[in-house]
Specification:
10-stranded antiparallel β-sheet, globular
Amino acid sequence: MRKNVDVNVTGIHSRPGEPTEKIVTSSIGFYEDMEDGRRLVEYDEEQDAGNGTVKVHNKVYIASDGKSMEIIRGGETENRLQFGEEMEYDTQYDTPYGSMSMKVVTNNFDFNTTHQEEAMKVIAEYALEMEGQVLSDSMIIIEIKNAETR
């Protein structure tokens, strides 16, 4: 059964020689328990695209054991990222300007849920690498709350 949820996403990115960047978005989305035991959260967000904003549709799949997640970002381009304790994931990161081969190296992963899953929180700390060089040390925090319990 799909439930309406509030989704708050915080992304923190530290790049060498630059100030730390923090991006916070809030959206309304849907939560669903999948038949295979995974949890699915879907939501849309607006993203700056230089000369305006673009709508991005996100699907977050949390593994049934709560030890990993996959994020699929769709819109003008589709990108897939995976996170899990000590996981390394190679991906093609597509942008409107072209595609880049990158590696996501998860340093820490944590998933918590409250009683009866009224609220959930996923935290992934990771490094983003390209050609063996660390582009950024990052953290994503996804907080999901049942919209009916506001």
